[in-house]
């Protein structure tokens, strides 16, 4: 699913140059659930941004589903993000004036589905995350856990090859965090590939595999023993 070879990401130049990733090489298979861990500044978020096609590597190779995504233009990157990738963010990134359903179907605006087909798909995704009854509620009318479920439904609506989850429980209490992680675990067991950034050991324990980073390099890559 994902293969990177000697990936580097450098910001700035000269004395202000910062090397956020340094010769990172790894592979992630289809239907893996991988947690990327590390302290602030370790490179874990930069790696996720590159893998999610939100940022481009300075050098190295990146293959997503066998397709090189290095040196392609912004329009092509946008197409890949819309068709192959789903994102879940710590702060949900929902539009406050839209209902849950309308938030979920936003990514379908650029698909070949008509309005009715998009609505049906959105309703299916909300049902999948247990939020059918909240389809016409706006974000401020929902709890944090419900908002994250809406964000997960939105990430799933385009049937992505891989979901990238950036600190998906960071703004949630312990009970709600467990509910969200169980949902992600259920999705993985249904065949979804998930790559998750977290700094919490108990959250990383839900994954099959843990990749630890420090100063822009991978210092550990091991199976997670549950």
TrEMBL record:
<keyword id="KW-0067">ATP-binding</keyword>
<dbReference type="InterPro" id="IPR003593">
    <property type="entry name" value="AAA+_ATPase"/>
</dbReference>
<keyword id="KW-0813">Transport</keyword>
<protein>
    <submittedName>
        <fullName>ABC transporter ATP-binding protein</fullName>
    </submittedName>
</protein>
<dbReference type="Pfam" id="PF00005">
    <property type="entry name" value="ABC_tran"/>
</dbReference>
<dbReference type="GO" id="GO:0022857">
    <property type="term" value="F:transmembrane transporter activity"/>
</dbReference>
<dbReference type="GO" id="GO:0005886">
    <property type="term" value="C:plasma membrane"/>
</dbReference>
<dbReference type="InterPro" id="IPR003439">
    <property type="entry name" value="ABC_transporter-like_ATP-bd"/>
</dbReference>
<dbReference type="InterPro" id="IPR017871">
    <property type="entry name" value="ABC_transporter-like_CS"/>
</dbReference>
<dbReference type="GO" id="GO:0005524">
    <property type="term" value="F:ATP binding"/>
</dbReference>
<dbReference type="GO" id="GO:0016887">
    <property type="term" value="F:ATP hydrolysis activity"/>
</dbReference>
<keyword id="KW-0547">Nucleotide-binding</keyword>
<comment type="similarity">
    <text>Belongs to the ABC transporter superfamily. Macrolide exporter (TC 3.A.1.122) family.</text>
</comment>
<feature type="domain" description="ABC transporter">
    <location>
        <begin position="2"/>
        <end position="225"/>
    </location>
</feature>
<dbReference type="InterPro" id="IPR015854">
    <property type="entry name" value="ABC_transpr_LolD-like"/>
</dbReference>
<dbReference type="InterPro" id="IPR027417">
    <property type="entry name" value="P-loop_NTPase"/>
</dbReference>
<dbReference type="GO" id="GO:1902495">
    <property type="term" value="C:transmembrane transporter complex"/>
</dbReference>
<dbReference type="InterPro" id="IPR017911">
    <property type="entry name" value="MacB-like_ATP-bd"/>
</dbReference>
């Amino acid at each position: 699913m994902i293969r990177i070879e000697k990936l580097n990401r450098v910001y700035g130049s000269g004395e202000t140059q910062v090397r956020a990733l340094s010769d990172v090489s790894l592979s992630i298979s289809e239907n893996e659930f991988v947690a990327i861990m590390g302290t602030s500044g370790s490179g874990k978020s930069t790696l996720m941004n590159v893998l999610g096609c939100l940022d481009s590597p300075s050098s190295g190779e990146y293959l997503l589903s066998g397709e090189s995504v290095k040196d392609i233009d912004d329009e092509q990157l946008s197409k890949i993000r819309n068709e192959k990738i789903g994102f879940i963010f710590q702060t949900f990134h929902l539009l406050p004036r839209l209902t849950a359903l309308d938030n979920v179907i936003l990514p379908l605006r650029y698909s070949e589905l008509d309005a009715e087909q998009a609505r049906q798909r959105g309703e299916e995704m909300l049902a999948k995350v247990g939020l059918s009854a909240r389809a016409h509620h706006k974000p401020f009318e929902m709890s944090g856990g419900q908002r994250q479920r809406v964000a997960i439904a939105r990430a799933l609506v385009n049937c992505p090859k891989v979901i990238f989850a950036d600190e998906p429980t960071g703004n949630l209490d312990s009970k709600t965090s467990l509910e969200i992680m169980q949902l992600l675990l259920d999705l993985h067991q249904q065949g979804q590939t998930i790559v998750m950034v977290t700094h919490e050991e108990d959250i990383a324990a839900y994954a099959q595999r843990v990749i630890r980073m420090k100063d822009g390099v991978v210092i550990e890559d091991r199976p997670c023993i549950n």
